Amino acid sequence: MSETTAATTVPYASPASRAGNPYVSEPQDYDAILLAGFGGPEGQDDVIPFLRNVTRGRGIPDERLEEVATHYRHFGGVSPINDQNRQLRAALEAEMRRRGMTHPVYWGNRNWDPYLEDVVREAAAAGHHRILAVATSAYSSYSSCRQYREDFARALESTGLQETVTIDKVRQFFDTPGFVEPFAEGLRTALAEVTAEGHDPEQIRVLFATHSIPSADALRSGPEELNLGEGGAYAAQHRAVAERIFSDLRADGADGAEATWELVYQSRSGSPSTPWLEPDVCDRIAELPAENVTAVLIVPLGFLSDHMEVLWDLDEEALEAAAEAGLRAIRTPTPGSHPRFVAGLVDLIEERIAARPPAQRPSLTELGPWYDVCRPGCCENARLGFKPAAAGCAP
């Protein structure tokens, strides 16, 4: 990664991050940690108001939202994401206390209670004015990085705290050992299971699944100067992690590691006329029997935990597609609150506090370690353009 200095300062940033260098070089203590999530409904009455929040500004009528609401209503109107973030927050606090770190850990959401605005206000009232955020998304794109940074800016501006509270954000952690190793562990177990059942590795297909995004947004993901081609940093990061997982399994002689893998997408929404990243996971599953595949392993590589897109789009729709195709199918685990994942997040917090040089930062692909401070023009929303954002250089 380049060590060039940005020509502009970073708004809403701590002194260590304000100059806009890709990697901070000045140690910075923080008053608090902020776990930033997407949010989800916690009862049937919450579902439509929640979906209105998710689609705010797009003018989508409630009758269309009700089509998506059926996924949540299938689970009693409760998204598992809030409970999963409560567990992750508790696990982060426990690991930090084990290391002697006393920072309070706040948790705030973009789309549901507890809202980020309320949490930032609460932190400031408690005297915590220098905040380090951990977003619950590992990759680079508008929805998985820049939108969280816009959330932070909006929370500071709407509460009037933009002059007294700063919010930095740990780097994208798609290729950190703590994130990657739980996926590799789950895939190793699944490969051993299907090979023990008699499936030849050449007849096993591993589908690394992630959320589809509009192709125009994907192209804009990551800094433009990296020139990562179609799919931008978003697709490149997923491919690099999948390749690393498989190369390690093969080097270790894991059962079934000769299987073929590919990257697939899920959960697309919006106008059918708008191009989104493909192929769709269910479409690929339907094609696999013609390719002499007898078993499919679905790895939810784009997801931290078993929230709705995993429980519905993979556990319901994709596994149903596999059953219809006559395929043996396993969906492997997400990191969730896996001890290695939790420890890896705390490693990122310690790394940022200490301002460790890039060479001392763990990364498992050639794309990392990713930047502390997002670069100018990074991850633009093709439809909305740039809005004010924290933790990155202004475009």
UniProtKB/TrEMBL annotation:
Pathway given in the UniProt record: Porphyrin-containing compound metabolism; protoheme biosynthesis
UniProt keyword terms in alphabetical order: Cytoplasm, Heme biosynthesis, Iron, Lyase, Metal-binding, Porphyrin biosynthesis
Pfam family, one: Ferrochelatase
Entries under SUPFAM superfamilies matching the protein: Chelatase
Binding site for Fe-coproporphyrin III: 79, 148
Catalyzed reactions per annotation: Fe-coproporphyrin III + 2 H(+) = coproporphyrin III + Fe(2+)
E.C. designation(s): 4.99.1.9
UniProt-annotated binding residues for Fe(2+): 211, 309
Main localisation: cytoplasm
Region ranges (Disordered): 1-23
Family statement: Belongs to the ferrochelatase family.
Function: Involved in coproporphyrin-dependent heme b biosynthesis. Catalyzes the insertion of ferrous iron into coproporphyrin III to form Fe-coproporphyrin III.
Stated name of the protein: Coproporphyrin III ferrochelatase
